[in-house]
Amino acid sequence: MAHYDIFSGPGMVGGEPAGREKLCTIYRILWQRGTNNVWFGGNHGFAFGFADYGGNPGCNGQRGCSGNYEHSHPGINDRHGWLITGGYYGIAIDTWPHTDGAGNTFFDVWFGGRTRTTRFRVGEELGDFWKAQVRTELYVSSGHNAGNIADDPAAQAAFWNRMDIWPDPVSERRDAANGNWLSQEPDYRNPSDWVFDEVSGIAVLANGDAWIGSSTNGLRLIDHDGHFIADATDVLPTKSVGALAKDPTDDSVWIGYRDAGFGVSRIKPDGTVLHYLALGDAQKNSAVWDIQVQPATATSKRRILVAFRRGSVGVYDGD
Fold first, then answer.
1. Which residues of the chain have a pLDDT value below 70?
2. pLDDT, tens only, 124-145
3. Radius of gyration for the alpha carbons in the chain, expressed in angstroms and rounded
4. Is 253 in contact with 245 (CB distance < 8 Å)?
5. Are the beta carbons of 155 and 148 closer than 8 angstroms?
6. Residue 5 · residue 61 · CB < 8 Å
7. How far apart are alpha carbons 72 and 54 in whole angstroms?
8. Domain spans of the chain?
């Protein structure tokens, strides 16, 4: 057994020379199938780990021996200078491949949290975590004006990569959609400035579109760059989504609910919506906090694994 101590030790982070430990609670862990990559979604942001890490108790957060890179997030600053970030329950591997000169293939990774969602461009950057970090977090480029990024295309791209799935009344910029890039920070203490996304799950389809589930707002479909396509909340029994998973057999999406007693649902590509309530007596009144799909093999069917709040895991197969 290996222990991943997700922090940066002394001398690893320029602005925090004594070290830092920001990811104190891990909500989601996703192994990237067929790779040595494992991703962690936590309270403050997300991190990358090496799946074959053997552990090193004496490492003290040095990057070459800690087995992880930490951290990044699509956090935003409010008018008091507070960084607003957290709750990264949504993680999914993108479906568009990126290949380097040696033939190695990489994929972006989606992360969603309380306020924003990002397509972390680690695939486009051919596996470079730190270059991808800039493409999510950049607020203003060197030599440009933070108060107006009209002439800063890199900062504009990062702004759009901090996707606001359920848009806030007050954004980071005055009116970016119409070319007004003047700074306009929201006030965290003013509830009317916010519609917190509270992302609880992400499922990316074969064409790159992504379903985004929220524990408070329901379910939306966006395209590969975050543009709104549809809101499917009305077809669900409750808007308190607890988990999402894509079914590789037909690109349908499975949905579990944090409100107990609603079971799971499935939305097929043709728009058919199915609700499954018969999950077993022990689970029928338990909230769903995670769903995973075990792909079919030569000797086994595809299975849907449902994690319930009470601590049990249900395994279901068939259509």
1. 278-284, 319
2. 999 999 999 999 999 999 999 9
3. 20
4. yes
5. no
6. yes
7. 23
8. 1-72, 73-84+94-204, 232-319
